[in-house]
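Hello,

I think I submitted the glutamic acid job twice by accident. Can you confirm which output corresponds to this input? Input:
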Amino acid sequence: MSYRGRIAPTPTGLLHIGHAATFSTAHRRARDAGGEILLRIEDLDPHRCQPEFATTAMEDLKWLGLDWDGEPVFQSQRRAHYLKAWECLRDAGFLYPCHRSRKEISSLAPHCEEPIFPSHWRRDPEEAKSFASPAGLNWRFRVPDGETISFRDGNFGAVEKLTGRDFGDFLIWNRDDIPAYELAVVVDDILTGITEVVRGADLLTSTARQILLHQALGAKPPEWFHCPLVCDAQGNRLAKRTGGLEIQTLRNQGQTPAQVLSGEARL
Ligand code: GLU
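Support: Only one job matched these inputs. Its output is below.
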């Protein structure tokens, strides 16, 4: 099977040097393997995503010299596929409707960035079968108890995540009637034939969740390659505060694509 990768920006803001580093690794791995690379715009959440950011992301990628094959895929246009997967998971007994709010869940572990959904709030997936659609409720995937999910990462080597300790039942669909990130990514990776996922190391735990989803949907998981996260001069992750390290800003300051990609821009 020939290599097929993807670059998957979320258009909630401007791309920064962390994205540039990850996306150039994804691009290089695909091209080195003589394979293809797709562009997928992860614009599922209409409250947080803006079409202008998708447009600038594409301009930034082109400026960096990171091309892609075929037309970009927009998640906002693929709802029918996610709905079908929801139905499949509902019928196979993997999902349950969840009435707990994010606030209630985080109040159990106020200092935890990603609190684990407590097992005593679980519902029986049998309940799900009477629902014809996911609208109006949160839906969770019931993870098996005390199971170690192991995978080989092309960069970090052997990784293990334990259910109940590292992650719990996770969202598949939210009450605003938006498919959750984990579901959409897995459905798209399966349907577009992705053979290797290259992305940031902040998603290592998501990978364990996504392996469970691939299995539940009867698909073989792809290979994984997680890139180290780029930090600013103070050692903080660039995820939330990009502090002038956006690709657009550096470009306007006269930096070249090579300088942005080498991380020289950080100095
Ligand atoms: N859209 C995600 C991000 O911008 C990447 C998701 C993925 O690669 O699976 O961090």
